[in-house]
Structure formats: C-alpha cells, structure tokens
Amino acid sequence: MEQPKEFVFDIPVGAGVATRANADGPPATPKDAATVILVQDGADGVEVFLQHRVKGMPFAGGMTVFPGGGVDRRDADTSVAWAGPDPSWWASRFGCDEALARALTCAAVRETFEESGVLLAGGADEVLTDVTPYAAARQALETREVSLAGFLAGAGLTLRADLLRPWAHWITPEQEPRRYDTRFYVAKLPEGQEADGATSEASSSGWQRPEDAIADAREGRRMLMPPTWLTLSELAEFATADDVLAAPREIVRIAPTLVRENGHVRVVLEPR
C-alpha cells in the first residue's frame, strides 16, 4: 500500500495539536512506545476498538486513539515466557535492536491489557479465553506495582507474540512538546475475550467500523491524530479481521511535519 506524502486535516489550531514553547530550541527526545490496533469481525465488516482519552491528559487529551503507551524499562525483562516470532524477527520488521523489539512487544501486550482488558497471552499452545481471574493484576500493572514479567510468571502465562502483526511506525512531529517513537501492532480480539473501557485514561471506549469513525471525525464528533486517521482509512479497505492480519506490510518510519495555515493544520508525511 503506497503511503501518501500529504494528508490534510480540517481541524482548528490547538484542537489536540500542541506546540512546544521553545520553538527555536532543540526538539524533545521521543520516548519509545507501542500501540495495538484491536480488530474484530462485526455484523457489517471489520470493527476496531477505539478509546476517547480523558481531556487534560498530557498527550492526546480528548483525542480518540487505539490502546497503547510508553515503554516501561521493565518491559525489557528477558525472563518473559514467549511464544511466536522472537525479538530478532520483530527487530528486523521495526528497524531496531532485539532488546528494544522485546521491550516494545511486551509494552504492546501490557498496555493492551491495562487499557482494554484484552490479554494476548496463554499457554504455549492455547490462548486465554477468560481473563476475569486477572482483574487485580490488571490494576497492579496500571499502577506499576507489578511488571509484566512478574505478572506472567506468577500466573504461569506465556506472552503470545504470534497474535500480533507489525503495522506501522510513526514518530511525533518535532513541533510538539511531548514526542513518541511509536510502533503500531495489529491483533484480532481473541475468542472468548471482551474489550472494555475500564481504564483511568479513557472517558469512553467501544468498537466501531473504521469508516464510521472517520465520518465522526469529519463531522466534528471526535478528534483523531494523523496516525489514527490514516490507519483507519487503511483498515476500511479490508473485508475481515483475518484479512487485516494477513495483509503484507512494509514498515516505514513516518515522521510528520505540521504546517499551520489559516486556522487549520496540514500534516505532511515524510517516510524516513
């Protein structure tokens, strides 16, 4: 799929787009992060799980996003029981070293569980269908009382990297005060599990067809960041969730530039 070089967003300056105070100084160093695009088959096609972030959040407050967040240093723990493509494979896809690839994939699983209640784990040959026994662990992960490695080891669970696929790589524009170097994963909702909105970071959550989410954004009912908008437009081309997972992807690092003109923002995409 060819990446467009420019993508125009009809949103007012200041609506979810921050600008750093020291505009003439060096840009902020981006923090490594992972995002997971959860998909399922709905009655009318592919649906994606979206969360409306609480207003006032330091990053993307009030925006509609996929579950995800920054890498915790403990996500690099090599003791995690692992099934599926190993860190070297993820490193080759995301253009990073193995240690970071491991940390990113662990962060993807951890953040997805914290923010949606979906746990991409199980035994070596089976995937969890009931995550209710791990409700307390979910809260402990969110408050950082326990690490992902500690939780999985204590529960006798294996991280299922085979449930994930690489999707994209975005870096926050240099003009913004908080920046993230984010790898996007995609995963199908495991059978028997349910995604919810039981997280302090979201005011509402739910499943929606990608084209409907874009329509809501165009009509002012929600705000989408450039990576979310473009990803939704890509997902709208698929008939089933399995088609999404099977889609060949060339992972190119996208570094957008924000251009403010006449009260609106033009986002120029620059593959690097």
Q: What are the secondary-structure elements, in order, as H or E?
A: EEEEEEHHEHHEEEEHHHEEE
Kindly report the average pLDDT value: 86
CA gyration radius, whole angstroms: 18 Å
**Which structural class do the helices and strands define?**
alpha+beta
Task: Name the shape in a single word.
Answer: globular
The low-confidence runs, each spanning 5 or more residues with pLDDT under 50, are 10-16
Strand percentage lies at 25-35%
Number of helices: 7
The share of residues in helices is 25-40%
Number of strands: 14
What's the multimeric state? single chain
Question: Largest sheet, if any?
Answer: 8 strands, mixed
Euclidean distance between termini CA atoms: 16 Å
List its traits.
272 residues, alpha+beta, 8-stranded mixed sheet, 3-stranded antiparallel sheet, 7 helices, 14 strands, 25% helix, 28% strand
Describe what you observe in this structure:
The chain is α+β, with helices and mostly antiparallel strands. It contains 7 helices and 14 strands. Strands 2, 3, 4, 5, 9, 10, 11 and 12 form an 8-stranded mixed β-sheet that branches. Strand 2 and strand 3 form a beta hairpin. The model is unreliable at 10-16 (pLDDT under 50).
